[in-house]
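Data availability (excerpt). The following record was deposited with the supplementary files.
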Amino acid sequence: MSADKIVLALDGMGGDHAPEVVVNGADIARERYPGTSFLLFGDPARLKPLVDKRKGLAKALEIVPAEDEVLAEDKPSFALRRRRKSSMWLAVDAAAQGRADTVVSAGNTGALLAISMFAMRMVEGAHRPALASFLPTARGETVMLDLGANLECDAENLAEFGVMGSVFAQVLLGLDKPKVGLLNVGSEELKGHEELRQAAAWLRREGAPVDFHGFVEGNDIGTGNIDVVVTDGFTGNVALKTIEG
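Predicted structure:
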């Protein structure tokens, strides 16, 4: 892979309305980012006719056969053990082996996390993965995590998410010192459960690797005053879907 050419590994069979929406997405990405190429994993008999309908897409895309697919109802442990020839697993493995720069899947989230952790391993210092996304605010965008990967988190997990979210915002939003806040029921230091208070103490200590701005409340998410909002996956998922509603 050259430095100026991005290769995306796509799970062609994952998600609602796949593979049509996956091929459509690849075509849109190709038009917006001409330097991008794709490894599309899945059933060639279903993928090739869809690719051929879109002028120019075949030149930027290679279909890689996969004889299986991860189903929406598959438990993560089952996908990890029994779906090793699936489009999701092969796409993740392509990124893990360096044949692609990253992997994209709209499929089973739990399975994707499990397979990715097994194939790619966690970076040093991180013990759990987190789901992160950008939320629109009055000032632009705010990163929020975790959005559902970990329903229960201890203080160490939350502190790590603060660091991970800060790095995420630096890389993707171009911020030198993203402002990090912990989602709580109030901004006062004594509010919230013990895990939150312990995580806050770690993040505000001298020498902490983030710019910690303390606790934030739900109505602070949309203001844009904080660049990274950190919470557990249960609260984050409820907050996300409330905002969507």
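Summary of structural features: The radius of gyration is 20 Å.
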